[in-house]
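G., the chain you wanted modeled:
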Amino acid sequence: MAANIQLSIDLTPLRQLAAQLGKDIDSLDYRKPLNVIKILLTNATKECFHGSHDPEGRSWAPLKKPRAKKSKGRRKGTASSAPLIDTGNLWRSVGAGTDAINEVGQHHMEYGTNVKYAHFHQDGTKHIPARPFLGITDKQVQQFEDVLVKHVLKALGF
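Predicted structure as tokens:
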């Protein structure tokens, strides 16, 4: 089971402006702004791992049993008691790597990870506290909308 996030942005006001100008924004290729958004999401997600917090900045629950030794794949400078960074597989899978859900198309983007245990950490279980690393804040939604609006306005000649 994958861990991913979904967001739909309503471009109705821009669609209406374009229609008044006799243009159709649905035919635009959104890959360029979606790739920018993917980079912004990747950076924000990596910051969650680095700071041991969720996308809203709330700290993750500490490990009940901190790791006694440094694991082979752990990032340099990461404490052995930091959650979700034991092997580094989950951290590396976000935004790139073999387990990444990382697809950008003309009108869509998928983002997340296919690491088998990711959803246990994202959502929590009976025995594992939720430590969400994927998510989109209201501030990010505004940032993503700004990226898309700039792209559309440029395409409309503004």
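The longest helix spans residues 31-51.

Shout if anything looks off.
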